[in-house]
Design a protein that fits this description.
The protein is about 5% helix and about 45% strand. With about 190 residues, it is mainly beta. It has a 5-stranded mixed barrel with strand order 3-5-6-8-7.
Length: about 190
């Protein structure tokens, strides 16, 4: 396999453990990606518009409604990367992303998210243009979120805490079964 047809990379797999207090975890799995030059029968090429972000909210979600009553939440999400330059100095660059959530996802964002929360967002990138009040054509790039996972711990979230359940008092449930009461039972099902 040549270098042009294969690429070593990694895939991040989301695994949720309901028993874990930390919630969702991400595991890094090595994989091999194969590039093919196959011709699609219907004449259309394959394409993918997918964005995945893990970052922190720079502000509380801004919620509004369209004239039709659809809820829309706008999030400002910061992602950062750090590296060491050739001079040995630590460098950091922060990118800001405008993320738009619609309908039920917008309501969830309004209810549970606040500034500083860490989130995983998945969606697609969209480019829009419109004419402003001054007659100038304006452009924006947005991420239309399809999925959102809150990555902060339970203490960090704005959600009300879950009520704690007390464990039932432990009893000796086998007190009724004495050796005398089981002495005559030889009818085992196997």
């Amino acid at each position: 396999m040549s270098a042009l047809t294969a690429l070593e990379t990694a895939v991040y797999v989301r695994s949720e453990n309901p028993a874990s207090r930390l919630g969702t975890r991400f595991a890094r799995l090595p994989c091999r990606v194969r590039f093919t030059h196959e011709r699609v029968e219907d004449g259309m090429s394959r394409s993918l518009n997918r964005v995945q972000l893990i970052g922190n909210l720079g502000a509380d979600p801004e919620l509004r409604s369209t004239t039709a009553g659809t809820r829309v939440a706008t999030l400002s999400v910061a992602t950062s990367r750090r590296w060491t330059d050739r001079a040995g100095q630590q460098q950091e660059k922060t990118e800001w992303h405008r993320v738009v959530c619609w309908d039920r996802l917008a309501e969830i964002c309004e209810r549970y998210l606040k500034r500083g929360d860490r989130v995983y967002l998945e969606g697609q990138i969209e480019y829009r243009q419109w004419e402003g009040q001054d007659g100038q054509t304006r452009y924006t790039t947005e991420i239309r979120a399809r999925e959102m996972i809150m990555l902060g711990g339970r203490a960090e979230s704005a959600a009300p805490p879950l009520p704690e359940r007390e464990a039932p008092a432990r009893k000796d449930d086998y007190a009724d079964f004495t050796s005398e009461s089981l002495a005559g039972e030889d009818d085992l099902p196997f």
